[in-house]
Design a protein that fits this description.
With 456 residues, the chain is of the alpha/beta class. The chain folds into four domains: 3-152, NusB-like (N-utilizing Substance Protein B Homolog, Chain A, Orthogonal Bundle), CATH 1.10.940.10; 156-192, no CATH class; 199-247, Alpha-Beta Plaits (2-Layer Sandwich); 250-454, 3-Layer(aba) Sandwich (Rossmann fold), CATH 3.40.50. The chain contains 21 helices and 13 strands. Helix 6 runs antiparallel to helix 7. The protein is globular and about 70 Å long. The N and C termini lie far apart (54 Å).
């Protein structure tokens, strides 16, 4: 059982604590105090609390994800209502204020319900003194109206209003504008980061038609292996339980398929997934490779390499190694095709991990770019002359994508191949010679893809 699940809250003398709101608070607290990921912690808590019915679980999910997503806007509201900087508050109190404010501002929960239940939580979790502060501040939030009224009251320039209205830090707004090439799609793209994503499945060792029938989902529009679910627990699908299918975003599937579709000169016998953990793309590559192709999957972290082994269980002619691609155990030029799904900021998956937009900062980008550049150089050394390399990140940020590829492409032995012709069925994928998926265009994570050939 998780630390959050073991926490004992003193009983409130007034009334029982609301289970959905308590669970949402425990998610916020885990994110704040332990850098937990909400999409991992929340399902764990729901499994540990069977007393929550389906409706309670749905409300807890809405509260936790919504509060995390709106954190910057909520903090802008709260900052003018608290007499000291928010950073000086007990982190639990700040999380409670955010939770209550989200209900008032975004969900328009009646003030008596939102305020009273949050005050009860404050009294139980922190103490009576904290409950008084929470009560006073949230009543001021309620008096200020809904989101539109608060945005008008906060003022600011157009850029600041867009950032607050779409729940993004301004630096991400700027990065999205740059990646999109202007303002035409900027607001829809930002708003799409706030929509709950569908669950996507990948049919690895089962016909897609069978997976559609088992799951009650629909065939995905882009990947020939994708199934999109309207809801429910994917773990209940027989093919998912058996490992013949798995949960995988359709954009991630296209990134793996890019490598398999790339035109190749000469032999096609050895493939490498260089940063393979946790194994989703390696699993699809294993399923779609031609007969006789050996797949090597590597990851620097031993525990992630073990996840890859589990994903590839039952596959023949595969090798999983725990290795840093920059210091590989294989010889240079060993592979015909190489996939580099490079570590990145993860800004392309903000729908799934809403807290990341506030956890990441502009200062995180340069060290990651340095790592990406080093890994791409190592990946090019691992592919033979005439072989191809797919560079992939789950981020559209220009510094992590186009700029990294441009550095590699400046070499006289590297050729950039266009991505869009390999996906004629996917409209709006071209980003110059590269590929870029977007939630608002494609219903996928914002996955970037580039294709390189080593010429000699």
């Amino acid at each position: 059982m998780s630390p959050a699940g073991r926490r004992r809250h003193p009983a409130s003398r007034r009334r029982p604590l609301d289970g959905a709101r308590l669970t949402a608070f425990d998610v916020l607290d885990g994110v704040s105090s332990r850098d937990a990921y909400a999409n991992l912690l929340l399902p764990q808590l729901l499994r540990e609390r069977p007393e929550l019915d389906e409706r309670d679980a749905a409300f807890a999910t809405q509260l936790a994800y919504g509060t995390l997503r709106a954190q910057g806007t909520l903090d802008a509201i709260l900052a003018g209502l608290v007499s000291r900087p928010l950073g000086e508050l007990d982190p639990r109190v700040l999380d409670l204020l955010r939770l209550g404010a989200y209900q008032l501002v975004d969900l328009r929960v009646p003030s008596h319900a939102a305020v009273d239940t949050t005050v009860d939580l404050a009294r139980a979790v922190v103490g009576t003194g904290a409950s008084g502060l929470v009560n006073a501040v949230l009543r001021k939030v309620a008096a200020g109206g809904d989101r539109e009224q608060w945005l008008a009251a906060l003022g600011g320039d157009g850029e600041q209003r867009l950032a607050l209205a779409t729940d993004h830090p301004r630096w991400i707004v700027d990065a999205w504008r740059d990646a999109l090439g202007g303002d035409d799609e900027l607001e829809p793209a930002l708003l799409a980061d706030g929509t709950a994503p569908e669950v996507h499945l990948v049919a690895r060792r089962v016909p897609r038609e069978t997976l559609v029938e088992e799951s009650g989902g629909a065939a995905g529009p882009w990947s020939p292996y994708a199934v999109r679910l309207p809801g429910g627990d994917p773990g209940r699908v027989p093919s998912v339980r058996s490992g013949a299918a798995a949960v995988q975003d359709e954009g991630s599937q296209l990134a793996a398929l890019l490598l398999s579709r790339a035109p190749l000169e000469g032999r096609d016998e050895a493939w490498l997934d260089m940063c393979a953990g946790p194994g989703g793309k390696a699993g699809l590559l294993a399923a779609v490779r031609p007969d006789g192709v050996r797949l090597t999957a590597a990851d620097r972290a031993p525990h992630r390499a073990e996840l890859v082994r589990q994903a590839l269980r039952g596959e023949d002619d595969v090798e999983v190694v725990a290795a840093d691609g920059r210091e590989p155990p294989w010889q240079a030029g060993s592979f015909d095709r190489v996939l580099l799904d490079a570590p990145c900021t993860g800004l392309g998956a903000l729908r799934r991990r809403p807290e990341v937009r506030w956890r990441r900062t502009p200062e995180d980008v340069p060290p990651l770019v340095e790592l990406q550049t080093e890994l791409l150089a190592a990946a090019l050394a691992s592919v033979r002359p005439g072989g191809v390399l797919a560079y992939v990140t789950c981020s559209p940020h220009t510094e992590e994508t186009v700029a990294v590829v441009d550095t590699a492409a400046a070499r006289d032995d590297v050729e950039v191949l266009p991505v869009a012709p390999l996906f004629p069925e996917v409209p709006g994928i071209a980003r110059g010679d590269h590929g870029q998926l977007w939630p608002h265009r494609h219903g996928t994570d914002a996955m970037f893809m580039a294709l390189l050939r080593r010429t000699r």
